[in-house]
Amino acid sequence: MKAAYYDRIGPARDVLVVGDLPEPMPGPGEVRVRIQWSGVNPSDVKSRSGARSAIMPFPRVIPHSDGAGFIDAVGEGVPAGRLGERVWTWNAAWGRAHGTAAHYVCLPSSQAVHLPEHLSGEAGACLGIPALTALHAVLMDGGVAGKTVLVAGGAGAVGHYAVQMASRLGAARVIASVSTPEKAGIVRAAGADDVILYRDEPLVDRARELTHGRGVDRVIEVDIAANGAADVELLATNGECVTYGSSGIVNTPFFPLIAKNLQLKFFIVYHLTAADRARAQSTLTRMLLRDELDHRIAARFALSDISAAHELVESGQAIGNVVVNCD
After folding, report:
1. S-S: 157 plus which of 13, 32, 130, 273, CB 3.0-4.6 Å?
2. 113-124: per-residue pLDDT in tens?
3. What global pTM score does this model have?
4. What is the CATH number of domain 2-126+295-325?
């Protein structure tokens, strides 16, 4: 089979190789997915570049946790009825050497989730990390019904989903922060009631103005290191900051936090509990079946051009999700 892989840490064009590898076969409880589209996430480029660790976790790594395709083989204990089923994957490369940047991936049956027929494969390759991260950030600890929510980086891969999901799951008001007028148009179309252009206007002052001085109830935060101080100021008393990302070390201002009874909540989508994942997955499935979500694809690349896909994600310039065609 054709696959992209690396056997050392480094820049994409220096270490990523596209070549032939043996086809994997599913073990007990596993399915084999013929991958058609593979999603590229920031975690994928960080792992390959050494931003997380300079040590290879396995002698050779096929990257990417997200993908979409169809089941073409099943292992012992998996119903034969799953053969031919269109699916999307989650955690394919988490703690494993073989991700979705290949013609085939074998993984536990539960990690290949039914993909509705009307949904494109490109969209399916965006669900495992971006969509589930956004949905857990919206659903956790009672959800957002009746709350004012600020989504930081609302035009990003996760943020764009979070704006849509908060709007559809009962938020009283959704505010999104973005960097450009182009992105402002994107998040308004996604369901944001208000937009803050954080490069052109003071984030805290504008958030206070929009909430008549009260502040917001929940911030869904893409970079707590960059925005944490502002989040503390713009949150209402008893508010919460739910964060899934950071560009650096986080300094916690104890007294401002305790004075407002604020809560900081951190999670990584790879480590969702079984109950939290089941809730997010079932909610996402209902939204997909109702065709309630817009899946923004920033760019599509051939598997042979996977280095360019990694570089685009690494640049931070992609407005939406980046996917690789493995057909």
Report:
1. 130
2. 999 999 999 999
3. 0.96
4. 3.90.180.10
